[in-house]
Amino acid sequence: MSQRTTRRRFIQSTAVTGVGVWVASRARADETESANEKIRFACVGVGGKGTSDSADAGNHGDVVAICDIDEKRLDAAANKFPDAKKYVDYRKMFEEMGANIDAVTVSTPDHSHAAASVMAMRMGKHVYCQKPLTHSIYEARTMANVAREKGVVTQMGNQGTAENGVRKAAALVQAGALGDVSEVHVWTNRPIWPQGGEAPKPEAEVPAHIHWELFLGPAAYRPYAKGYHPFAWRGWWDFGTGALGDMACHTMNMPFMALDLRDPISVEAKTSGHNKQSYPKNSTITYEFAATDKRPAVKLFWYDGGNLPPADLFGEEKPKNSGSLLIGSKGKLYSPDDYGAEFTLLGDATSPEVTFQQSPGHFTEWVEGIKGGPKPVSNFVDYSGPLTETVLLGNLAVWADGKKIEWDAEKMEAKNAPEVSEIIHREYREGYTL
């Protein structure tokens, strides 16, 4: 069932009302700006991170529909939301429930983020989508464009953005606490799943509770095997975005906020090697950003799979297994935290008085935005779309292991590496579209 067919059938089925679902849905979403009205949520993906995302939705409104390709997870969620209608296909859920939904959470594997989110936004629904925002750079650009076009309130699930420590660290850097920052190091303890090997052997039968075709979604068909669902999908190019995609929207977030690290001009990776099926066991990626009117040119180094920055960069500090380090002309800022909320100033760094917008809490920030409050910081248009583009650019260099990618952000084009075009803009399997 293609999205085009689904939408056509949906419009036809609602035509008898005289206005159709698209107008009705938008009007309904506008009405939720009343601070006293309960928001009606639909949750796509209710296991894993979707467990807490759907719980947050339930704490901020009414969960009226839930969807998951795993019926065991779906039934567990139904115990918490007994009044919610259950679905295994989000396309059918939107078709049948669209007029009764104000906002949607998307907590699926990475490869299904954009297809589900864009379908919801085109129906006028506000969307909260897990990190990384998308599976490809083209999808991230599209998500931002659709959110802008439809005027919906959006947020990516990089919860650290709402930490006051992150906002303070960024404000200090922007106030000159480190002087001119020209070098950034970011590292993670991921992957914590199998990565860098061969695809698992296909199983004769798909477990009865798993809807494998729906798990595949827009990805190319492959037979079911143990080792994809429910967690290790992150290590496979068709489904996940590797260690970089899993954690950089968290760990790179504070440097991105502090230095506006969007639209790199080049990226290069050194890896343990990979077979274009599974991400490498480890990688070190170097991003280059041109100078702007607010900062000099910056180099950012990303490390995963046990790789770490040089120890002598930290002085007497001993780096933990994930964090970030910003190096300026006057001093350094070290964060031993995935989210950047904890930090220490090193060397001759100063600590001027700074002000920043306090957050009421990550999910609450999105809900308050829906109700007419300030736009969430990590919205698709201004923040999380560009952040995701920066993060995922690193995977172009991973794909072209050893080749420096010269990047044209405006055209979304690798100027010297046409072979990575399939990673920039992936083809969807029939039945799914943006």
Q: Please, could you describe this protein's structure?
A:
With 434 residues, this protein is of the alpha/beta class. The protein has 14 helices and 15 strands. It has a nine-stranded mixed beta sheet with strand order 13-12-11-7-10-9-8-14-15. A six-stranded parallel beta sheet has the order 3-2-1-4-5-6, sandwiched between helices. Helix 6 packs parallel to helix 7 and helix 7 packs antiparallel against helix 13. The radius of gyration is 22 Å and the shape is globular. The chain starts with a helix and ends in a 10-residue tail after the last helix. The N terminus is likely disordered.
Which keywords apply here?
single chain, 434 residues, 14 helices
Largest sheet: 9 strands, mixed
Distance between termini?
A: 14 Å
- What's the helix-strand series? HHEHEHEHEHEHEHEHHHEEEEEEHHEEH
The percent range for helix content is 25-40%
Widest sheet, order of strands: 13-12-11-7-10-9-8-14-15
Shape: globular
Number of strands: 15
